Amino acid sequence: MPTLAARLVLAAHEATHVKTLHDVIVYASTPGRAFTFSSSGVGSDGHLMGVAIATALNLKPEHVPYKSTAEALTDVVAGHVPFSTSTLSSTSGFLHANTLLGVAVTSPERITDFPDLPTFKELGHPELLDNTWFAFSGPAELSDEVVTKLNKAIVAAIALPDVHERFRRDGFLAQPMNPKEFTNFVAAENAKWEPVIEHAGLAAKPQR
Prior knowledge:
This protein is of the alpha/beta class. The chain is 41% helix and 20% strand.
């Protein structure tokens, strides 16, 4: 089924004075510090992206999980945690208000509404090109006929100009897919994130 892609952004508290990815490395490499970041919970998109960023930058990650994205971002704004790894749609208000400093975003190209926010890709880290995605799914027993009909209707709906503009304004990118493409997409995502999940210590240990 079609997916909605929400880009993630690495943001920092203003007291860190971090403006670039190099600044993040210097800040988090200082003795007594680490790449300490907040997210909406253990195993969340922000958690995994934080681990991926730390791995790419060769930093020690320290994850601070919260019960919600709002709580996670609020504590970064308050200065209790230096970094956040949340979706751009959730972080945009803080970036516009200059209460958080945007460092880099996981989109393939710069976001129109944030022209000064660089991408990880352009900063030399194409492996951090990613997004949180949402999709329409249904029970496994749905017939191919029903799946195809629903797929066509949803693809047509998200292509409407006003719907597309609303998604764009909220930081989402509509990605129309047919059922086979979506199945392949999920398989690729599973393969991509499996090593990150293992590195984060979230993989289930085999029973003996």
